[in-house]
Amino acid sequence: MNVHIVLAHPSPTSLCASLCDEAVAFLTANGHEVTVSDLYAMKWKAVADYDDLGSHTDGTYIDASGEAYRDGGLSEDIRTEQARIEAADAVVLLFPLWWFSMPAIMKGWVDRVLVNGLGYGTTRGWKRYGDGAYAGKRGMVITAAGGSETVLSERGVSGSITDILWPINHGILYYTGMDVLEPHVVTSAVTVDSDRYQNLVAELRERLEGLETDEPIAYRSQAGGDYDERRRLKPGRERPGTSGFDLHIA
């Protein structure tokens, strides 16, 4: 399969960068094609503005203001990233967990690359949440967090890592149609010695072995019949004892 990794860490000697190198080596050795967008090394522009969209003339896509533009009006760096996603069977977002989210440079990648008409579609009848333009592709988060496993648990002071990553897994990857795998989370990432690093590499390889075959998170599709005309979950569709984000997992 073709795998596109988007990496966001300012240091080329960081744990995230090392895990990216390990992932590329493992996937390549197992016959996969891999591309990498190292956002800091690319000096990726993180702010979306009208320079990205050209002159907005004679367009096919619609931006948030209702103005139309063509794919050809997008800046070259955006078109390059879109082509990499189009060619990929799986997209991996690899980043350190900063302030309960991805680094700003990666959020800027999301804002600029996953534009209306490609990442999702108001022009196609608001097709999203399992039915976006990237349906059929796989998506996965790999993140390194300073907090311990207990801190990032349901009763931990920081809350469940599953809830923390919900906006990315459900609100970005699944929104655009991807089948989203359980995230691979490295906890206590500030205390990694050589012995633990080897264990982390083994765990990463195990997860990557299932990149093509592991069952995705069973998010409910917007068009699957579980939601009413106002996009609210229909009564009786929830699993017993569930609430919050878990209501939207079948």
Describe the structure.
The structure is a single chain. Strands 1, 2, 5, 6, 7 and 8 form a six-stranded parallel sheet that branches. Strand 1, helix 1 and strand 2 (33-38) form a beta-alpha-beta unit. Helix 1 crosses helix 6. With 250 residues, the protein is of the alpha/beta class. The chain has helices at residues 15-29, 76-87, 104-113, 161-164, 166-174, 194-209, and strands at residues 2-7, 33-38, 61-62, 68-69, 90-96, 138-144, 179-180, 184-186. Helices cover 26% and strands 14% of the residues.
For the record, what is the CATH homologous superfamily label of the largest domain?
Answer: Flavodoxin domain
Overall 3D geometry? globular
Strand percentage: 5-15%
* CATH domain fold name of the largest domain: Rossmann fold
- CA radius of gyration: 19 Å
List the helices and strands in order.
Answer: EHEEEHEHEHHEEH
Instruction: Domain count, please report it.
Output: 2
Percent helix range? 25-40%
Supply the CATH class of the largest domain.
Answer: Alpha Beta
What CATH architecture label of the largest domain applies?
3-Layer(aba) Sandwich
EC number: 1.-.-.-, 1.6.99.-
GO molecular function: oxidoreductase activity
Pfam family, one: Flavodoxin_2
Biased composition (Basic and acidic residues): 227-240
